[in-house]
Automatic annotation (TrEMBL):
It comes from the Eukaryota. Gene3D superfamilies: NAD(P)-binding Rossmann-like Domain. This is Uncharacterized protein. GO terms for cellular component: endoplasmic reticulum membrane; lipid droplet; mitochondrial outer membrane.
Amino acid sequence: MTGTVIITGANGSVALGFVDHILSSYPTYTLLATVRNPSDANSTKLSNMITSKPNAKAHIEALDLSSLADVRSFAEKTAERVKSGKLPRIKAIVCNAFTWSLSETKYTQDGLEASFQVGHLSHYLLILKLLGSMAPDGRIMLLGSNTHYPDRPHPLTKLIAEIPEDVEEIVKPLPDEPGQEHDRGFQRYGIAKLANVLLMHDLNTRLKKACYSPSFTK
């Protein structure tokens, strides 16, 4: 059994457990474990995990989700590798990576709000560019959160996730009011996760998927 599995933010705590499971349970699969900077100290544990499985078909690859151009380039090169037979068709894309800031609004090099671009928009682009390279039974995994409910308050923030009337404010939000930086940070994170849930429902009109919240991971 062959196939390629792609995971973003592969050096994160939830992702490391997933990587270990893939390496142990699906040794014939090719794993593309993507991180923003493979030489970063945060990737050491991931590198050691892969090295401990000498027969693993796993590669740590750079993918900067704060750059739409980088996402597009990675996806196009990956699609070409699949087309040429250098990679098996994609069995799964695990959209795990995220970022947030609870102290101030942060922006990507594209000038967009970082939580939304890294947590949702770049994954959306990655998925769209790679759909044609997926196996017939391929899976797309989008991560939600218990902060994404627009009608359910979260104990750690006073602001709920909701799509603003002017959707441009999602990627270019208004300045935080003094004292609201923490709550707005949670809200921005929740909006990115809410967008993932909406995307999952949209994709599900054509593809069968399963939803998952890392908050329930033991």
